[in-house]
Structure formats: structure tokens, C-alpha cells
């Protein structure tokens, strides 16, 4: 392996056996070396091979700007998340998570801390990812001797959520906010607290996630379902349908969107299920 580019003393760009560019990381791996020099493969601790070319370039830029320690703890968190969730994560998380940890710790050293306004909802709607966020706080404590509050676990959890979907982190915040808003309308309308361990609640939140994702992306339903079926559901579950009316007004006033009959139908059904399960 010959050096193609030196990012810092601990990181370099080279080729793998297939001729693909890769990033290699190791303590002092590029110290006192220059482009074209060979690398000591025994000194390589980590290899990154990102298929997305744009992400690969951004990752190189970030590696040249921040210390290796932040990437190491981010990698530890990402591997734990993959193992826990049993799924692949978008490659962009290596960039976003490393940068986030670096920025958060930099703010901490300046005496600046941020409150997470969505913490309660992140705990409810992204429970698995939040548990990973809590574990991530342990990794950060072990590496930097800094103990962050649960607010930071929530921020870290959203990076995991973002890596599970093609959405931007900003969109994840907006999706969570919409779920929160609709859930609050239902809770206040029925004067109840959800049974958040129930399958009905899980289905309800899943439905809201997909609706919120469509709402912010503009990819909303155009077709109308059978009006007769909606009339049947409306008559069968009048309270849940009235609640949907409140949701419809809120969405129209705040997001300039009119719910279709199909959306009102499914919302009524999901609300009826979650309310019935909670009350029983």
C-alpha cells in the first residue's frame, strides 16, 4: 500500500487490492511520510471504504480537521448500533456522528450546553435508538471523561434514526415534531395517556411516521378512497372521527394540506385502536 494522500499523522488515503481508494487509520501511520511512501500494514487499526464518492470526499475533509479520537468513538457507537439494531446504516453517519461529537465536546469546553426540546418524544417514538444514545454516552465518558445528560443521548439517537432512512437529520426533527403534535391532539381530545407498550400504539406511531414523511417530502396521496367506507367508519367510531377532524384542521392551518378521505379513514381506524387498547 502506497500513500495517495496524507490527511494527518494518523490518517492516509491509499488503494486496496482491488484498486479502490480507501482511508486507513492508525496511530502515527503517516508520521514523517510523504505521498508515494509505503504504509506499514501492521500499523493500520481501521480501514474505511465508502462507496458514495461525495461522502468519501467529505469524510477525508473531516478527517483532516479533527482528531482521530472522535472518529474512534463514533465508530464504536456505529458498530454497537448496527449490532443492536441488526441492520445496515447509511455511510453518511461516519461523517455526521463524528462531526456532531466533536462539535458537542467543543461547545462543552466553552461552557455551552443545548437542551433537547424533543427528548420526551424521542424516548417514546425512537426507543431503541434512544437506548443506543444512552450507551453512546458511556462510550464518550470512557473516551473523553465527560458525562453528558440525556439530552445528548436524544441528539445522538436522531443521528442513528437518520442513518436508518435516506432523510436528512432536519427532516427527522420535523417528522418527530409532527408525530408529537398529532399525538398530543389525540391525547388531549380523549383526556388519556397512551399505553406505549401496546402493539396498537406502535402501529399508530408507525402510521404517523409515514404520514409525516410524506407530508414534509410533498409525496402525499392524490387518490380518494371509497366515500361510502369512510361514512361507515365515521358512523361506527364517531369520537375517533371527530378527533381526526381536529387533526385535519391543525394540519391545514399549519402545513397547508387537506387530508384526503383515505388519510382520514386510516387515521380514524388507528386512533380507535389505540384509544380502545389504552382504555381497556
UniProtKB/TrEMBL annotation:
Q: Which domain of life is it from?
A: Bacteria
One Gene Ontology term of the biological-process aspect is: regulation of DNA-templated transcription
One Pfam family hit: CAT_RBD
Stored InterPro entries = BglG_antiterminators (IPR050661), CAT_RNA-bd_dom (IPR004341), CAT_RNA-bd_dom_sf (IPR036650), PRD (IPR011608), PRD_sf (IPR036634)
According to the entry, every stretch annotated as the PRD domain falls at 65-170, 171-280
Q: Heme as a keyword?
A: no
GO molecular function terms noted in the UniProt entry? RNA binding
Q: Which PROSITE patterns match?
A: PRD_2
Q: What Gene3D superfamilies does the record point to?
A: CAT RNA-binding domain, PRD domain
Asked whether the keyword Ubl conjugation is assigned, the reply is no
Keywords linked to the UniProt accession: Repeat
State the NCBIfam families in the record: LicT
According to UniProt, the name of this protein is PRD domain-containing protein
Amino acid at each position: 500500500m502506497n500513500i495517495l494522500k496524507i490527511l494527518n499523522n494518523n490518517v492516509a488515503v491509499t488503494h486496496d487490492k482491488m484498486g479502490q481508494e480507501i482511508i486507513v487509520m492508525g496511530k502515527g501511520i503517516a508520521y514523517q511520510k510523504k505521498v508515494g511512501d509505503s504504509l506499514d500494514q501492521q500499523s493500520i487499526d481501521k480501514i474505511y471504504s465508502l462507496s458514495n464518492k461525495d461522502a468519501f470526499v467529505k469524510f477525508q475533509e473531516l478527517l483532516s480537521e479533527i482528531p482521530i479520537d472522535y472518529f474512534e468513538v463514533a465508530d464504536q457507537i456505529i458498530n454497537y448500533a448496527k449490532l443492536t439494531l441488526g441492520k445496515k446504516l447509511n455511510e453518511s453517519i461516519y461523517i455526521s456522528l463524528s462531526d456532531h461529537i466533536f462539535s458537542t465536546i467543543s461547545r462543552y469546553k466553552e461552557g455551552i450546553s443545548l437542551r433537547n426540546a424533543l427528548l420526551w418524544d424521542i424516548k417514546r417514538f425512537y426507543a431503541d435508538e434512544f437506548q443506543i444514545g444512552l450507551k453512546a454516552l458511556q462510550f464518550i465518558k470512557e473516551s473523553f471523561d465527560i458525562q453528558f445528560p440525556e439530552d445528548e443521548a436524544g441528539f445522538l439517537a436522531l443521528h442513528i434514526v437518520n442513518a436508518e432512512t435516506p432523510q436528512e437529520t432536519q427532516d427527522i426533527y420535523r417528522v418527530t415534531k409532527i408525530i408529537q403534535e398529532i399525538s398530543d391532539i389525540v391525547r388531549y381530545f380523549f383526556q388519556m395517556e397512551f399505553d406505549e407498550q401496546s402493539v396498537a400504539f406502535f402501529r399508530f406511531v408507525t402510521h404517523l411516521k409515514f404520514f409525516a414523511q410524506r407530508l414534509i417530502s410533498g409525496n402525499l396521496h392524490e387518490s380518494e378512497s371509497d366515500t361510502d367506507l369512510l361514512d361507515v367508519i365515521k358512523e361506527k367510531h364517531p369520537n375517533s372521527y371527530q378527533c381526526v377532524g381536529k387533526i385535519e384542521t391543525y394540519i391545514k392551518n399549519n402545513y397547508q394540506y387537506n387530508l384526503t378521505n383515505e388519510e382520514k379513514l386510516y387515521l380514524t381506524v388507528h386512533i380507535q385502536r389505540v384509544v380502545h387498547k389504552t382504555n381497556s
